[in-house]
Amino acid sequence: MGPFIKQSQAWQLLFNKFVVVLGDSVQRSIYKDLVLLLQRDQYLTLPQLKSKGEFSFECDSLVEGGRLGPMTNGTEYREVRQYRSDHHLLRFYFLTQIYSPYMESILEDLSQGLKPDFIIISSCAWDITRYGRGSLELYKQNLHKFFGQIKTIVCHDCLILWNLTMPLGKKIKGGFLVPEVSHLRPTLCYDIIEANFYSSRLAEAYGLDVLDLHFHFRLRLLHRMPDDVHWDALAHRRISTLLLQHAAAAWGVDLLAPLLPSGQDGAVNIRPLLAPTQLANQPGRTAGHHYGGVDRPMRDPLQLPPFRQQSSAAGGGGPFYPQVPMQRYPPPPTGNLRFYRRYDDPFPLANPWLGPQVYHQFGGQSAAGGGFRFCPHFQAHDCYMRRRRRKSNIRTHPYLPQPPQGAPRYPAYGWW
C-alpha cells in the first residue's frame, strides 16, 4: 500500500483548518479515519468501520440524525457528526443525493456559518440506484446544480475535492442496494465507471479538484469488504494519505519537513515547496534558522575539487588536480574481429578500477595522503545482478474475478 501519512504530519497540515466531508458510508469511514489520525497512529477496527449513527466516536459528537432519529436504509436517513479540538474542526454530512432540498439546507449552513477550508465530496451509488429509472440522467442534472452552487458560497481559497466512487463488486449485499433495485446488481459496477467519467469531466470544467479513487484501488480489490461496497482499515488509511497529500500539494506544503523544536514559536510547521532550480540556487541558511539545516548548492558529483599545493620554486600554486597514471592497451591485432568490441573506446583503461575516481578533501595538508581520500569507482557485474523473471499465475486483467485461491483474504479480521 505504500508509506502512510503519520499523525504528526496530519496534525500540522490540518492545523486551524475546518474540514467538511459529504457523502455516503464510504465517506463516513474516511471522516472516521481522519478523526482517528489526528489523535494517534492507529487504524480503524472492524466494529468502528461497520457502526453508523453512534452517539460518539473517538471524542466526536452526533449532531443530527443517526441514533437520534430512525435508523433506516431509506433515502430520508440523516447523520451529521462533528469532531472539535483546540486546533481542528471536522464535520460530516451523510448524503443520499448530490442535490436535493437537504443539500440546499447544508449549503445555507455553510454560507452563513464558519467558512470551510477543505471540502471533500462524493456521491454516486445512491444517486443512480434509488431514484427511479432515470436516475443516471437526474444525477447528471444535479451535478450541474451542485457544482454551480458550491462555488458561490465558499471562499475563493477553499479547496474543494471531488472523490470518484471506488470500485464496486458484482455481489453487493445490503446497504443502499435494497431488494427493490436488486436487478441493478450485475451492471452497477459498469454504471459507476460511466458516472465517474462524467462527474470528473464536469468537476474539472467547474474548476474543482478531482481525486480518482477508482483508479487508485482498481488493483487493490483484496482490501474490499465481503459486501463488495466498503473497504478495510488499510485502504482507508491509504485514502487519507492520498487526500492529505493532494491538499499539501495544493497548499504548497512539504509534508516531509521536520518538526518544530521545542521552545520555538510557530503554530504550524509549513515549508513551501521549491522547484529544483530554486533549491539549487538557494543560499545556505544560518544555524539559527528554524529548519535547523543548511541547503548546499548542487554540483556535479564527478567534478574534482581543486587542491592548492605550494611549490618551493614558484612560491605558490594554482588549482591542482592530481593525475592518476593510466595504462593503455596495445594496438589490436590485424584481422582479429574478436577484439572489436574491446576497442570501441579509442583509449580504454587497462585497469577497470581506474574509472571515474572520486576525491574527498577531508583535512588540511597535514593530513595523511596530502588531504585526499581515494574511493575507487564500484561497478558490479551485470551477469550477477540480473534476476530471472517469472510469469505471474494471476491474469493481468485489472479486475480480478475472485481473490487467489489459498491466500487469506482478511487475516487481520479473521476472514478467510
UniProtKB/TrEMBL annotation:
Family matches, as InterPro entries: SGNH_hydro_sf
Region of interest (Disordered), residue spans: 281-328
Source taxon at top rank: Eukaryota
Database matches in SUPFAM superfamilies: SGNH hydrolase (SSF52266)
Gene3D superfamilies: SGNH hydrolase
Family assignment from sequence similarity: Belongs to the PC-esterase family.
Identification of the protein by name: PC-esterase domain-containing protein 1A-like
Annotated organism of origin: Sparus aurata (Gilthead sea bream)
Lineage of the organism: Eukaryota, Metazoa, Chordata, Craniata, Vertebrata
